[in-house]
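Field reference: sequence -> structure
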Amino acid sequence: MELKFGKDGLIPAVVQDADSRDVLMVAYMNREAFDLTCREKVAWFYSRSRQKLWKKGETSGNIMQVQKIYLDCDNDTVLIKAKPAGPACHTGQYSCFYKEVEETDMKEMETKKTQTILEEVYDVIADRDKNPKEGSYTNYLLEKGIDKMLKKVGEESAEVIIAAKNRSKAEVSYEVADLMYHVSVVLYEQGLTWNDIFEELKKRR
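Structure field:
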């Protein structure tokens, strides 16, 4: 089978416990590491940080006795089914994948994603103020001033109400995005940032 190595000459290798089927670790192989693994029936890898070949368990004794080797459908990822002689992780854990992402962690990540998007929009508004762009709607609002900005916030708020009354998720999503943009412009004009709003919400929570 022809392996498809990346531009760096490496291919990702997933190691799975042959008995429990637990995923133990993920590392990288170059051609030499793959050939050594096939020949010696123990897992060899290539360290990207040290730029050298390394045999799993060479110093710790926790070698991986290879039972079977598979390739994915694109031949660009290796799956090694092995019997570990000890912990797979350098921390002493049975598997490198021992840190579960809790539901609260996922919610926090989603919150940060939302914050990042709003902050990016805000940054664009600030950039338009410092570096005006011909035909920019943001520059138009900044030039017209607070009265025009507030009028647009009022109009977009009404559009959100109408969309919600229409029971249209697509409309609500579109109109709320418009509203958030115009609120961002007002925040910028007032010398506030989204972080100020986030902090206020945290206090209330």
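Note: The mean pLDDT is 93.
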